[in-house]
Amino acid sequence: MPSRVPPSDDQLHDVEVLIRAHHPLLFVESIEEDRVHTLLAYLSDRIGIPLFTWNPNSGLSRLGPGGGRTAHTESPELCLAFIEQANLEAIFHLRGMTKNLDDPAMMARLKEIYRRYFKHRGTVVITGSDIDLPAELDPLFTHVELAPPTPDAYHQFVATVLRDISKRQKVQVELSQEEINQLLHALRGLTFFEVQKIITQAVVEDGRLDSRDLDRVFQAKRRIVERSGVLEYFPHEHDMKDIAGLTNLKAWLEKRQNTFADPERARAFGLDPPKGLLLIGAPGCGKSLCAKAVAAQWKLPLIRLDPSKVYQKFFGESEKNLNRAIRTAETLAPVVLWIDEIEKALGPGDQDGGTSQRVFGTFLTWMQEKKENVFVIATANDISKLPPELLRKGRFDEIFFVDLPGEETRRRIFEVHLRRRDRDPQVFDVDRLAAAAVGFSGAEIEQAIVSALYTAFSHQGTLDTPGILTEIDNTRPLYHTMAEKIDALRAWARDRAVAAE
Ligand code: ATP
After folding, report:
1. Which residues pair with 55 in a beta bridge?
2. Closest Cα partner for 499 from 334, 342, 280, 351?
3. What is the separation of C-alpha 360 from the centre of its chain, rounded to a whole number of angstroms?
4. Quick one: average pLDDT of 59-63?
């Protein structure tokens, strides 16, 4: 690690208060043990008590002048025995001591340490990630969350890494101020260790740091998302040009783009970042496409909440999963969080002993209170399952209704999809196609083109207007199969939602 970036005053203050208030056992859930170590080193200076660290290879060592290893403390139990006997006003940082905590001898030691250290400012800090403390010990520990580094801390850290590399080789930074901001925002959610790796790789490869290196950052974020287990990362594949119609919705989004590009300036201007949108409408009309296109247009990562992974049969696990998803999204902010079919994902069911009620409640509270730059795009097809609380003011900024495309939009959808398959729309009678596809969703229009392409290919022919018209004739459009539902959606949306078109 390059030289240490000082922790923020807030972080120092929070943990200092706990130590001064005699909390003998702290548990910091974090994979960033180096950052915790730096924080504790600052605190030991500030409070004026020594810092010891332990790891399984070298045992317990006292840092600073006059420090050194403590003999025979490599095993976790001997280390705890030493701490218990020493009964010392000091900070003991135990790294990686998370495995044997349910061992009865270890538990007994920790309980005794708790009893003795309660009387002074000595503290044992255990760090690690994805650990459940044994139920018997849990109440003795104070859980501490390590706040993510501020953009300023990332800035300092990147500068330090670049300075270190420039001692060995020439480094060129080719980033405008705006790109630097983008990079610093993109780094959020990454550990310093990951940042160091990315920046070093980027610079060592071609001697410079430029806007193309942003991609590396997004890749690293993808790994974080996958680690969470409940979220899925989507690469940028679509942009706004891929969406025909939906002009109102696009204008709304365009107006808010800069808030995400420069959230600090927006805040200083008196604007909170938008919370998100609820898109309601018939299936296949471009709602999901919108989520993908917004992320691409705003140059933000897109992550999708996978509801099937949120729900677990064990009590309390589902809320934990949702909380983990929310926390991951927040550390990745600015980010677009896409919740597909929210009525199924988070709708309050009544068959599961209240689990979905609690999960839904957790989500609503978060939406109401969230401060982080997480833009939620939720989609829904079935209004009968939409709980009214979700529609209340303060949750989403706007509710848009995405209807079946009108004739002009159908024309544009044909053009978009012909072009995507390298066909020149001008060679087709797009007016005729659009007129024939009354009641079709965007997905059905795309499907008609794809089916016509298959037919043409199997006959070694070319894709043409009559071929697509035949497929249109063979399709029973959505409006026919779902007429009642779509009419009900339209009636519902009339005074509750804004038309996306
Ligand atoms: P669902 O509720 O079933 O998830 P949806 O409204 O989210 O449906 P999408 O998945 O966005 O629908 O649309 C399916 C496909 O249909 C898109 O990938 C796109 O190819 C095509 N499509 C739909 N609407 C449009 C549109 N307005 N412009 C271009 N393509 C569209």
Report:
1. 59
2. 280
3. 18
4. 92
Concatenating the DSSP letter of every residue in 153-193 gives HHHHHHHHHHHHHHTTS--EEE--HHHHHHHHHHHTTS-HH
Task: Average the pLDDT over 375-387 and give the result.
Answer: 87
Model confidence over 399-442: pLDDT tens digits? 999 999 999 999 999 999 999 999 999 999 999 999 999 999 99
343 lines ligand 1 (CB under 6 A): no
Between the CA of 472 and the centroid of ligand 1 the distance, in Å, is 17
Give residue-wise pLDDT tens across range 230-255. 888 887 777 788 899 999 999 999 99
241 CA distance to ligand 1 middle (Å) = 13
Q: Which pTM value belongs to this model?
A: 0.71
Q: Could you tell me if the CB of 279 is within 6 A of ligand 1?
A: no
Helices (H), 276-406: 287-297, 307-310, 317-332, 342-345, 355-369, 388-391
- 31 Cβ inside 6 Å of ligand 1: no
* Pocket of ligand 1 contains residue 413 by CB under 6 Å: yes
381 lines ligand 1 (CB under 6 A): yes
Torsions phi, psi of 177, nearest 5? Answer: -60, -40
Task: Establish whether residue 110 lines the binding site of ligand 1, counting it when its CB lies within 6 angstroms of any ligand atom.
Answer: no
Residue carrying structure tokens 């007016």: 431
Mutation to probe ligand 1, out of 241, 250, 288 (largest number of atoms < 8 A from CB) = 288
Distance 244 CA to ligand 1 centre (A): 10
What would the mean pLDDT of 62-73 be, rounded to a whole number?
86
- Model confidence at 257, in pLDDT bands (50, 70, 90)? confident
As given in the structure block, the two tokens for residue 450 are 């794809």
Between the CA of 443 and the centroid of ligand 1 the distance, in Å, is 5
Using pLDDT thresholds of 50, 70 and 90, give the confidence band for residue 353: low
Q: 57 Cβ partners below 8 Å, 6+ apart? A: 74
- Which atom number of ligand 1 is nearest to the Cα of residue 416? 29
Token pair in block for residue 286: 């471009």
- Look-up: residue for tokens 């990147």? 158
Distance CA 4, CA 39 (A): 10
Q: Residue 92: CB partners within 8 Å, gap ≥ 6?
A: 52, 53, 54, 60, 83, 122, 123, 124, 125
